[in-house]
Amino acid sequence: MDDKAKKRQTLRQNLLEQLTRNELEADEIHQIVASSSAIPDFFDGYRVNEIFAAIEPDALDWNAGYFDRQRKLAENNFAEKRIRHLIDVREHLIRNGIAGFAKTPITKPIEGTDKMNMQGYLPGINLGRMVEQGVISMVRSALINELENNRLADNEINKAVAWAEARVADLFVGYEENSLAGKMNNDPAQWDADYYDLQTSYLNSNFAKVRFEHLITVRNSLRLRGVKGFERIIIKPKAQPQFQQENGASRPQSDSSSAASQPGFLRIALMAGGALAVLAALVISLL
Description:
The chain crosses the membrane at residues 265-286. The protein is mainly α. 52% of the residues lie in helices and 0% in strands.
């Protein structure tokens, strides 16, 4: 198996794995699939026979067992039609709160978060994992990653801080200034990307809440001024292409205008970080 073939197999495995997790939104996976359609020999033709059962269009028949069966079939018949169908089934199960698929929002008030509306808040997958492990240094790193995620608005970062602080004792330390953690400048006119980076390094040395909150304020100011690297990244859902309904072996043809827009999405996905960036990097390496 050559290098390209190994990467194709890795991308397939990553896509199938993401279908069993709640880390990525359905629209994000659909766009990765759309981008992958330009990779030669990546998707199989959709097959239906005594071994490969057809997909069931009626959502009334979609349940966890059906999802597992179709995912197993996709391992050996990696057809674009099957993968997109699995994304839709997964989303249906999530919306209906099926065990193993449901996203559980925080609804119970927690000490330290009563002044903020946490209704429906879901922590990022990495932050949630680090909090579960309970290693303070890793939780702090995860919070900084939230700060660096340009898909998140300020209120989402504030909620992440409140959520983590309510669960991790001694997450923040007292504010101090020393040779590794200088003072903060409260003059917005002097804030730029270099100042933001400098304050981030100070935060790493003195993880004080006031420093973190200052960085949120600086980040927002730079975003509003349109400073490069701080722009809000919003991944817009795109219309799903219509697929051929016959059970032939030929792969559905991608719309040329839709294919032309994919490189832009992949660049955005790379900046987003996390699992989405991993998938985007694999796709780019195969194009």
